[in-house]
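In line with agreed milestones, work has continued on tokenised descriptions of protein folds. One protein thus recorded appears below exactly as we store it:

>
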Amino acid sequence: MDSNQIADGLIQYLMLVALLTFHEYGHAWTAWKCGDDTARLQGRVSLNPVVHMDMIGTVLLPLLMIFMPGAGRFLIGWAKPVPVNSYNFNQPKRDDILVTMAGPAMNLLLAVGLMALARVGLVFHSAQMIDFCIQAAGLSLILCFFNLIPVPPLDGSHVLRVATGMSHETYANFARFGFIIIIVLLQIPLVRHLLGAVTYGTLDLLARIFGLG
């Protein structure tokens, strides 16, 4: 791996950390506004990436995917789950879903904003700005759709828990094997293909909307 590849990998990693930080901030801020200040009291309503970092999902897995030979350029990760006490919510079921979906929604909004910035780069003929914004938008969309997979600790699993009326105890037992299940799923070509298809299909749609071709 040459110096250019290392630099590109580090840029990708910093993008990922920033996008994960906004993702968790979305969860924490929404929980606070829905009546639960657990995350706020623990300092999680913050854009400081350090308070959201998870050793496996934010550090080890992403760096392995970037720098391990033969790992490819497919990059995902997760941050430390935001602590939530649903008993504090104004309307528990509705607010639980709102808080859960706030993270993916934040990534979708970031992708839209980044594509708008890419359009500005097009106006000023800045190829570097366009490339950076499109790459970051694509990564944000990957995080958005990856987190909708219904496996703990990903957000889709919380939606599934609420939708099925699963008890917190049952969910906790299921969550013990979540990391293993995620790693296994990511080795399945069909899963990676579907995640890539929905991600880059959405990226292409946004590119057309903003006149980026």
Observations:
- The chain has a mean pLDDT of 92.
